[in-house]
Write a structure and sequence with these properties.
The chain is mainly β. The chain contains four helices and 28 strands.
Length: about 400
């Protein structure tokens, strides 16, 4: 089956972390494994207390802050400024993920039963609209074209037998309505009964919903009708994905661990990041295989093919893949204590590392492309704006405060 083309062109109109994990402290050199010529430079930084996920829209960055949202104005990238913030009302809590679409933001409650919707039309004064109670914690979400897509993982007979994406119509954010869902068990009952296949993260592009189901790999669904998602493809599963029962070491270690997914802008490629926890986290002292980012060619969904894997930075630190961002020819990736890297993926079968940034005090949750910059969210501390040619080889002026000592596998 050929991959559906971009919806606008078809119309010819002319147009977890693992749940709760937040990084690990480890000593290493800021330039370890890097040459001066390939080092990203710190152009500027801004403190945002309790920083987790960051997304950008225009000259603003939106930051999940555990208890709410922070908004950074970087119209002057040399002096980014925290201009707005809000604290989400109960029952929200444990907000690790923020998304924005136009004047609406959604905050996923990892410690609460749904998402908070926020009016961000005035970036200096974000206002809570209301809370969408799904009845279960939401680790990640996606917001696009009037719909919110939420990761839901209820335990049934197996650990994640009710893993799914729930779809909420938020075109009228004051009156949101659950309108559809994709359940793993409807198309892959053995995977759903497997012990380590939660819906961890999601991405939507051109009416296609990309879902990272951990060891079950990536499941792509057509959501052109959000009330009736239809399976399009599945790929990238681990050999033991259908093993029943929850196994902590299987959950924390490779193979598998599809943690984050994002397609290329044209949809021909899918990037899949694995998050794994070797050495001190499991009873395998010789296991040092940290998760990387795999690149799949999905131009033909009947024959998805793995092209390459981007390995973690070669530094002495906790350096598994976390969240990343993809443009037509660049991959911007975060690796917890391993820092932030930029790769040239013009030839996706042969990705080439261009630059990296890491210091003794930083541990990164996310990296996103923004104009000529890479924006990294340093866990607990704030944002760094990184540039290949301009800036200095320094640590940010703030220090992250949430470098964890263990994964949280709720």
């Amino acid at each position: 089956m050929r991959r559906p083309q971009r919806r606008d062109l078809l119309k010819t109109t002319g147009v977890l972390g693992l749940t709760g994990i937040t990084g690990i402290g480890s000593a290493r050199s800021a330039d370890s494994g890097q040459k001066p010529s390939d080092t990203l430079r710190l152009f500027s930084d801004v403190a945002v207390d309790r920083t987790r996920e960051v997304v950008t829209q225009g000259p603003y960055a939106y930051v999940a802050t555990v208890d709410g949202l922070g908004i950074v104005d970087w119209r002057n990238p040399s002096r980014p400024e925290l201009v707005g913030s809000m604290t989400a009302a109960d029952p929200a809590g444990g907000i690790l993920d923020a998304k924005v679409d136009g004047d609406l933001a959604s905050l996923a409650s990892n410690g609460g039963p749904g998402i908070t919707l926020v009016d961000v039309s005035d970036r200096t004064d974000p206002v809570e609209i209301g809370f969408v109670d799904i009845g279960h914690h939401i680790h990640n979400s996606f917001l696009q074209d009037g719909y919110a897509y939420l990761t839901v993982n209820e335990s049934g007979d197996a650990a994640f037998s009710e893993a799914r994406t729930t779809i909420v119509d938020v075109r009228d954010p004051s009156n949101p309505e659950v309108v559809g869902e994709y359940r793993l068990k409807d198309d892959f009952p053995k995977f759903a009964m497997g012990g380590v296949n939660p819906c961890h993260d999601i991405y939507v592009l051109d009416d296609l919903l990309y879902q990272a189901f951990w060891d079950a790999g990536i499941v792509v669904a057509d959501v052109s009708d959000p009330t009736d998602p239809q399976l399009l493809a599945q790929f990238g599963e681990a050999p033991t994905a259908d093993d029943p029962g929850f196994d902590i070491e299987e959950y924390l270690t490779l193979p598998g661990n599809a943690h984050y997914v994002q397609p290329s802008p044209d949809g021909d490629l899918v990037y899949v990041g694995a998050e794994s926890f070797p050495e001190d986290f499991v009873e395998e002292p010789d296991n040092d295989d940290y998760g990387g980012i795999k690149i799949f060619d999905v131009s033909d969904y009947d024959d998805p093919r793995e092209l390459a894997r981007v390995d973690p930075p070669n530094v002495d630190a906790f350096r598994t893949s976390h969240n990343f961002d993809v443009t037509s020819n660049r991959l911007h990736a975060s690796w917890y204590d391993g820092g932030v890297t930029v790769h040239d993926v013009t030839d996706p079968a042969n990705p080439e590392r261009l630059a990296g940034y890491a210091t003794e005090t930083t541990s990164f949750w996310a990296a996103v492309a923004a104009q000529d910059f890479t924006v990294g969210s340093d866990i607990g501390g704030g944002l760094v704006f990184l540039h290949r040619d301009r800036g200095r080889r320094d640590a940010p002026g703030f220090e992250g405060t949430s470098r964890p000592d263990s994964p949280d596998v709720r």
